[in-house]
Design a protein that fits this description.
alpha+beta, nine-stranded antiparallel β-sheet, 6 helices
């Protein structure tokens, strides 16, 4: 028995070494699959749909930049990755996965409130398109609105849109109002496929926030089976939505 005891002690480091090696191999495999997912489902669709594409899989928007969008409150935990930059004609495009949540320990229990988890997109146009008009789908739960902005809520005067969206404007007479009906139509299409949507017309930028409760990165999906054709179709629809937004704003600017 003593011999077996000594043998067990001697073999313990070997067993631990094999365990840690197995963990490292699994982590490496997950990382490789993560990188492959980002390449196939983010970088390649961007390259196939836009020009001047650059992609940084493990970089993203800064916390200060996202806070400046003024669409979602900022919690005490922030992450952004899968950053893409490209162009469509004369429009500059930036997009990234974003996670915003607030962690608190209350009564010996951990409580995490997820404010936003999805993709944010910035479309930068050559000309001014708005003065801070903001649109939230009713399902966009966590909103960054000051009391002054809340007072700027405006009825859209369309039964369907008023049922599905909340609109906040700073100047009801601004020319960007001509963009809003078409923009609401496109947001309606987005809302059918996302848990919550928000948009802001800010100077020469259109900022979109598409809340899904998950990001595009593989490690957030690795517990699910991913259909190649289904996932590629979903991603292509995302690319088509971005191009549709660019087209509708560009048409309105040309006609103004």
């Amino acid at each position: 028995m003593e011999t077996w005891g000594y043998a067990g002690i001697l073999l313990l480091p070997v067993g631990l070494g094999l365990l840690f090696a197995g963990i490292r191999m699994r982590e490496k495999a997950n990382q490789e699959m993560d990188e492959l997912y980002r390449e196939v489902f983010i970088k390649e669709p961007l390259t196939g749909n836009f020009e001047n594409v650059s992609f940084e899989p493990y970089e993203g928007f800064s916390e200060e930049m996202v806070e400046g969008f003024q669409l979602c409150p900022m919690g005490n935990e922030f992450d952004s990755e899968a950053y893409g930059k490209c162009s469509c004609k004369d429009v500059h495009v930036e997009l990234s996965d974003v996670t915003i949540q607030d962690y608190a320990r209350l009564a010996k229990k951990n409580n995490t409130t997820v404010f936003f988890k999805g993709r944010m997109v910035v479309l930068e146009f050559p000309e001014k398109i708005g003065t801070g008009e903001t649109i939230f789908s009713k399902s966009f739960s966590h909103r960054a609105l000051s009391p002054e902005e809340e007072q700027g809520k405006l009825l859209i005067e369309n039964e369907e849109y008023d049922r599905d969206f909340d609109l906040y404007v700073s100047d009801p007479q601004d020319r960007s109002q001509r963009i809003l009906p078409r923009l609401l139509e496109e947001l309606g299409s987005l809302s059918e496929r996302h848990r919550g949507t928000a948009a802001k017309l800010d100077g020469n930028k259109l900022i979109l926030a598409l809340d899904d409760g998950e990001g595009a990165a593989f490690y957030r999906k690795k517990k699910k089976e991913v259909s190649l054709d289904g996932e590629l179709a979903k991603v292509q629809k995302d690319m088509d939505d971005i191009k549709a937004m660019i087209a509708l704003v560009s048409r309105q600017e040309q006609s103004s």
